Amino acid sequence: MSETAVPLPAPVFDPARVRSAVEERLTTFLDAKAQLAAAQGFPAEVTDVLQDLILGDGKRIRPVLCVAGWRAAGGCGDEGPVLRVAASLEMFHAFALVHDDVMDRSATRRGRPSAHEAIAARHVGRPDAARLGMDAAVLLGDLALAWSDELFHAARLGPDQLAAATAVLDGMRTELMYGQYLDLLATGRPSADVDAALRIARFKSAKYTVERPLQLGAVLAGADVGVRTALSAFGLPLGEAFQLRDDLLGAFGDPSETGKPAAEDLREGKHTALLARALRRATGTERDLLTGYSQGVPPGPAEVVRIRAVLEGTGARAEVEVMIEERRRQALRVLEEAGLPPAAGAILRAAASTLIGPAR
Amino acid sequence: MSETAVPLPAPVFDPARVRSAVEERLTTFLDAKAQLAAAQGFPAEVTDVLQDLILGDGKRIRPVLCVAGWRAAGGCGDEGPVLRVAASLEMFHAFALVHDDVMDRSATRRGRPSAHEAIAARHVGRPDAARLGMDAAVLLGDLALAWSDELFHAARLGPDQLAAATAVLDGMRTELMYGQYLDLLATGRPSADVDAALRIARFKSAKYTVERPLQLGAVLAGADVGVRTALSAFGLPLGEAFQLRDDLLGAFGDPSETGKPAAEDLREGKHTALLARALRRATGTERDLLTGYSQGVPPGPAEVVRIRAVLEGTGARAEVEVMIEERRRQALRVLEEAGLPPAAGAILRAAASTLIGPAR
Predict the structure, then answer these.
(1) In sequence order, what are the residues at sequence separation of 6 or more whose Cβ sits closer than 8 angstroms to the Cβ of residue A305?
(2) Would you tell me the crossing angle of helices A301-313 and A284-291 to the nearest 10 degrees?
(3) What are phi and psi of B103, to 5 degrees?
(4) pTM score
(5) Which residues pair with A113 in a beta bridge?
(6) Roughly how many angstroms between the first and final C-alpha of chain B, as a whole number?
(7) What is the distance between the alpha carbons of residues A321 and A341, in angstroms, rounded to a whole number?
(8) Closest CB from A127, A132, A178 relative to B184
């Protein structure tokens, strides 16, 4: 009905606007799925639990970075397709969280019961409720993965965009799964090998959370190889810094802020760079304390306090802060040297602050 | 380099040729993934286990039906795209099997150790080998699901074909997951409700295994609504018959033929039409026997023999045979009445025999 066909310039990049636009799309999508389930007589708990998980909270890091990559590569005009692709990334992330919590037997996520706990709670009268929750959460994650595809297809990309975008997505998914696989293999047997820990972080987090979302947005804007290379050179160190920050939060963070149980990485025996650094300098007694959980007995609250003291006392915490700042500087240097469009610098600098906090 | 540009007619539909063409594509794909993993230093067990599962054995039912649907709808000329899509269905099926075995704690598949058992066996020295196997198999299934997409994208469908095919695929995936979810909820608490059992069978098997693969092939040939409706009318009863046959094999089959442990459905307390039929006529003692596993104690070999006797004695086995024949006739009637192309009849009749055996 509109008579004005003049294309509007893309509005200023505003992460809050991206978040609300993505949440709106996810809300609409999940409402439609809930209605479909009701019409078919499928159990409502599937979409109920996903709605609670996805719409309840979440920083929408990957959608924001996807749109940032699109803008940084000169994307303008109709934001519809890039927002749909961004929403599909958030649905994919829901898949990753649900299965991650199953594998880690993690009781909470974003401050609420994790998906398997939420499902088990709905069947509390059944003797097999706990197992049912775990098994059903595997299916719930599978559904979120399939639905992330459905959201992606809804973007109706043209053939060239589609080929470029699926190449990025295919790479992202494979990297994440292998990163998680490396993480699984290393869990319960952390070592002083910092490089091994960084390698896990690179695949399960840096590429998945930062590099690939930026690239995905960029290829939707038709970015050339130069821009994509610059975004990788910026995104990888920033992504590593993000995971290192997450390691610190995992060890020292307050559950009311992280949404996860206190010191869960330590309880699970995750091979993080933080722990690897500490193991390099730990005494025999300290080493036993840091790796005690690998004997099958997770540390209690009092031991967690002592472990934290070792992470401080060995200098590991301070060293990881230094590693974060090194990576921040490396990422920001790329913005000065890579010859990205001037507007891109401001967008990506803001993204860096959001991910790892302001520079010290 | 070829100077002959005359399009060749599609060769006669030959399921064995479809199987080998699909296996060739899957072999090439998995070899490339194994090489990529080696180059990146990722653990080889991921592709090793998938190769054993996918290339070792398998009837390739869904790929064969996909190509059958394409031919039945008049598909001719270049078979490349439909074979790639068919291969992606088989990779998707590998995902479904891996996660199904995790959820059922099933030790074997296709006569070999299931994926989680195969992974656990590779880490037999670790105290957490069993849990690692289960968790890693969740990831392995995730990877197979993501890789099924990669194979699908490799078909490089045009925009119209792509939109039609993704609509079918999206539906198939959602139906399967909900079917599996219904199955999970009913496991350990079977009842005399035959309709409920058939409903589970429809979603987790009839639509997924028969209707949707046929439709997927058909839309790749540009099938109109009439052809698609006829394929549904043919595929749904045939798919139900396939699941009923599978229920009989699950209860009475020889593990050397089924590739699964003896009477696994009974041990797991699956709510099948066979069991529902038996519960309708069972005496109190028989009923206790049939549902004893829901008390948490799976039946031993001697009890399995007694349970089988009850399934015979109540007439449930014979009734399910009748249900299969009713559905076969219903499917074949569609072929006579639906006005499909003449060649389609022969193809689909052959598919029916392959799925549920020759008519009695």
Answers:
(1) none
(2) 130
(3) -65, -35
(4) 0.94
(5) A108
(6) 53
(7) 30
(8) A132
Task: Look at residues A147, A159, A157, A6 and name the one whose alpha carbon lies nearest to residue A83.
Answer: A157
Flag if B170 and A146 touch (Cβ within 8 Å).
yes
CA A72-A78-A84 angle, to 5 degrees, is 85
pLDDT tier at A295, thresholds 50, 70, 90: low
Q: What is the pLDDT of residues B291-339, one digit of tens each?
A: 876 656 667 788 888 989 999 999 999 999 999 999 999 999 999 888 7
| Domains of chain A from N-terminus onward | 13-156 (1.10.600.10), 157-360 (1.10.600.10)
CA A86 from chain centre, in angstroms, equals: 13
Q: Are the C-beta atoms of residues A340 and A214 closer than 8 Å to each other? A: no
The encoded tokens of residue B37 equal: 């993993």
Which residues fall within 8 angstroms of residue A191, CB to CB, at 6 or more apart? A271, A276, A279
* Cβ atoms of B263 and B292 closer than 8 Å: no
CA atoms lying within 13 Å on the CB side of residue B269: 21
- Tell me if B127 and A296 make a contact (CB, 8 A cut-off): yes
Per-residue pLDDT reduced to its tens digit, A107-161: 888 889 999 999 999 999 998 999 999 999 999 999 999 999 999 999 999 999 9
The per-residue pLDDT for A250 is 87
**Six-digit token string for B314:** 């109540």
- The DSSP-derived string for A232-254 is HHHHHHHHHHHHHHHHHHHHH--
User: B173 pLDDT band (50/70/90 cuts)?
Assistant: very high
Contacts of B145 in chain A (CB under 8 A): 142, 145-146
Residue A181 distance to chain B (closest CA, Å)? 7
Distance (Å, whole) CA B319 – CA B15: 31
pLDDT tens per residue, range B233-264: 999 999 999 999 999 998 898 878 777 777 77
- CB count within 10 Å of CB A331 equals 25
d(CA B75, CA B223): 9
List of chain A residues whose C-beta atoms are within 8 Å of the C-beta of residue B100: none
For the record, the structure tokens of B238 come out as 């045939």
φ, ψ of residue A256 in degrees (nearest 5): -70, -20
Helix (H) or strand (E) holding A109: strand A108-109
Residue B5 has pLDDT above 60, yes or no: no
- ipTM strictly over 0.95? no
> Pick from B40, B159, B181: which is nearest to A139 by CB?
B181
> In the numeric block, which tokens belong to residue A308?
């934290």
Q: Which residues of B fall within a CB distance of 8 Å from A188?
A: 126, 128
CB pairs A-B closer than 8 Å? 124
pLDDT at res. A258 = 79
Q: How many CB atoms lie within 10 A of CB A192?
A: 15
* Dihedrals phi, psi of A108, to nearest 5 degrees: -130, 160
Residues 6+ apart with CB under 8 A from A342: none
B299-327 exposure pattern, b = at least 16 Cβ within 10 A, e = fewer? beeebbeebbebbeebebbebbeebbeeb
Q: What was the pLDDT predicted at B263?
A: 75
DSSP state of B58: -
Spatial contact of B149 and A170, defined as CB atoms under 8 Å apart: yes
* Span of A93-97, A229-233, B269-273 with lowest mean pLDDT: B269-273
Q: If pLDDT is split at 50, 70 and 90, which confidence band does B136 have?
A: very high
The yes-or-no verdict on residue A3 having pLDDT over 50 is no
CA atoms within 13 A on the CB side of A104: 25
